[in-house]
Amino acid sequence: MTRPVRALPAVLALLAGACSGQCGARGGLPPVRPPLVQAPDGQKYYLLDRGPYQAFYDRWGHLQRIEYDSNKDGRPDQIAHHRGERHARLLEVDEDFDGHMDRWEDYDADGKLLKIGASRRGRGPDVWVYPGPDGQPRRKEYDEDGDGRVDRAEELVSGRATRVELDTDRDGRMDRWQEWPEGRLTEERIDTDADGRPDRRLRYGARGEVVGLEPVAGR
Hints:
- This protein is mainly beta.
- It folds into 2 domains: about 1-120, no CATH class; about 125-219.
- Helices cover about 5% and strands about 40% of the residues.
- A 16-stranded antiparallel beta sheet has the order 1-2-3-4-5-6-7-8-9-10-11-12-13-14-15-16, with helices on one face.
């Protein structure tokens, strides 16, 4: 799994130094209010400009996001979305510096990485990787048709898929659950009545042939 972009320590250092000469540190004078700018989202923010870093605050002084232009081409290649919280909840990254974000990292309120999104089509995230406690991928999700909903998910052990979930009718709910121990399909549960729960089970032999069909217990 590609390692997350850890720009957050630099961001926190930026904020720690942002009050130099401000925030009451002007010989007892009131702090200077940053300029008010209108962002592409139509909202107005107070802008704190620190060279390649630009921090955007709402009208109440809550940090909303920090933009970082690492190669100084005038376009941010990392955007940390704080949404008023201490830790960034989403980090967007333009890895190839083409002006389009192609990596998305989601964090919880404590700054722990939850998942990493990537784009295969250049139109937003369509594959997500969830790290386990050891940092290795434990789950991978795919949006195959680009509708913003997961239609394939894989549970991973040592990088190998051991369980696969599929949304074959693209209604936003999984309807097939496959077991793949040791890289071979052995069992598949199917939802035939579209209620989101499996009601039929297929069993497969060593050569991939169907060797059994039975109802799921309790259905």
